[in-house]
Amino acid sequence: MDSMLSRFAEAQVKCLGYDLSHTLSPDLSYENLRAVYKSCNAHDVKAVIKRGIQNSIQNSVAGSQVVGGQLPKEEVQGWVEVYHAYWKAVGELLAIQESSTTNGKSSNSSWSTIYESWKELLSALIRGYLSHGFEAWTVPCLYVAGRHLRVFAIKADTERSNNMSLESTAEANFEDDFNPESEKNQMLEDCARQLNRVFNLCLSDRAPIDQSRKWGIYYVINLLFKTYFKLNSASLSKNILKALSAGRGDMPALESFPKSQQVTFKYYEGVLCFLEENYVEAEKHLTKALDMCHKDALKNKELILTYLVPCHLLTTHTLPSQKLLEPYPRLQKLFLPLSRHIRKGELHAFDLALQEGEDEFVKRRIYLTLERGRDIALRNLLRKVFFAGGFEEPKAEGGKPVRRTRVPIAEFAAAISLGSQETLDNDEVECLLANMVYKNLMKGYIARERGMMVLSKSGAFPGTGI
Amino acid sequence: MASQDAANKDSKAAEAKPEQAVADQKPAAALEEDDEFEDFPVDDWEAEDTEAANGGEGGKHLWEESWDDDDTSDDFSTQLKEELKKVEASKKR
Questions:
Q1: Closest approach of B63 to chain A, Cα-based (Å)
Q2: What is the pLDDT tens value at each position of chain A, 466 positions in all?
């Protein structure tokens, strides 16, 4: 406890937010948890903390050149509450470690009690900002508290659903109106509400920008995004973005935040646009996220690319190269077969590959987007038919040979059935062709009475060089 | 073809069952590992450590055109002609 508080004092005197936040970390070894918890008891804990804070601040001030580093009384009181809550949470953490080592089921300690005690800590911090005058540079404490609150909430939810499935497999059949979805994430939903409090705490700070809690906003937003995505209510993130853009005028620019926060924010912003099928915006955000991402963060780059590849397919009709996907075996499995079939115009094989990967694609929310890649595969197939048609005799002597631009519908039909071995009606083929023209993937018109497709002499397949 | 498909489906369904039971037990954990953007080990980094500075996205060569002109279109054209004949023949019948 003493060493913790002297690190607290050191950070306070030097105004080092991250150092300060480390003193509130729950990731301690068993011995350290024990050392903190056993250093005082429930009766004297507050007095011990208070004395500790005052003494160590005095020592730090004396040891440094800083003048007048004493904390106001109000603020000391606020921190006493914070560390008191921390001490209690440490007690719960200790209990669960002990019960897991002795395997004793009798202990009352559980992840949900840890969650509750950690929530107290977060509340104490929030009160500290609202009524004890905590300064803005201390916001990393909110990061530590928020981040772990989320972890504990998830653990508590898993723990409860495990217990429930043990107890109530037999009874479950009788409860028809029981909604497992909302029950399952009870703690995490509460966590989202707590994080929202923190969000508002940062957003509503009216202090001048260099002393504002607004500097905490993106970290909290990212935590909220993660939480909403996990709760399967990604759309709630939109409210956050709205609130953010409403206050954007007096918000520091995203570029002035640490890159870890920028990348995470851009990723989620991009995925949100992606889910709304706004692929142009999504591509912008995701490209930015990838560009700025740390080069060694493989997992995160993989996640960014999972959405960026389908974006590229739709917006610029480009496919990932082998080199791009080289470091990511999973993405290769996901995208390479589809890419190959698209490139080769193998329509039927494309359909099969889409089917094959359906579960994975759906899980990653990219199925519908990839499905639209079928147009590109079809375009390439029709393009091959056009190529196979060869050239017409040049009309003028020595003129440049001209591609045959009048292609029988039957040839397109044959090409489509080539892979699937299923014959399509001419009507169906015409419909496909008309759609290609409508989507500007092909230029020309259908001469129905002749059973011909008449393609444009200049750029029959826009953007593909012919 | 159709019967083969059906057979495939059956065997798939049989396989899926035990897997599903496992999946039901811990969907949350599985998603957590798979899908979540990870915390970076460091808070901030220099421009030279970004993906862009290391031959990443900045290089446009990482994205390729979506069509392929390299394949032997002669092959395709013979295939196409055969298929055309087949289609014509089936229509006449």
A1: 5
A2: 778 888 888 888 888 899 999 999 998 888 889 888 988 888 888 888 998 888 888 887 776 655 555 788 888 999 999 999 999 999 999 988 887 766 555 456 689 999 999 999 999 999 999 999 899 999 999 999 999 999 999 999 988 888 877 665 545 455 455 555 667 888 999 999 999 999 999 998 888 888 899 999 999 999 999 999 999 888 899 999 998 888 766 788 899 999 999 999 999 999 999 999 999 999 999 999 999 999 999 999 999 999 999 999 999 999 999 889 999 999 999 999 999 999 999 999 999 999 999 999 999 999 999 999 999 999 999 999 998 888 877 766 667 778 889 999 999 999 998 888 788 888 999 999 999 999 999 999 999 999 999 999 888 999 888 7
Instruction: Tokens 């440094």: give the residue.
Output: A64
- A residues 376-415 near B, CB within 8 Å? 376, 379-380, 383-385, 387-388, 390, 410-411, 413-415
Tokens representing residue A100 in the block:
């897991």
Task: Report how far residue A153's alpha carbon sits from residue A110's, in angstroms, rounded to the nearest whole number.
Answer: 11
Neighbours of A64 (CB within 10 A): 12
- Which chain A residue is nearest to residue B90, measuring alpha carbons? A423
| Torsion angles phi and psi, residue A105, rounded to 5 | -85, -5
At A266, list the tokens: 């851009």
Which letter does DSSP use for residue A211 in this model?
G
Is the CATH number of domain A400-455 1.20.1250.20? no
Contact B67 A313 (CB under 8 A): no
* A-proximal residues of B, 41-60, CB under 8 Å: 42-45, 49-54, 56-58
Look up residue B48 and give its DSSP letter. G
> How many residues are there in chain B?
93
Name which of B62, B67, B80 is nearest A415 (Cβ-Cβ). Answer: B80
DSSP 8-state class, residue A328 = -
Using CB atoms and an 8 Å cut-off, which of residues 114-133 of chain A contact chain B? none
> Where does CATH 1.10.10.10 sit in chain A?
400-455
Name the nearest CA neighbour of A249 among A197, A216, A214: A214
Query: Strand runs (DSSP E) across A190-287, as ranges?
Result: none
Q: Residue A374: which of A336, A339, A407, A409 has the closest Cα?
A: A339
CB count within 10 Å of CB A15 equals 13
A-chain residue closest to B84, CA distance: A414
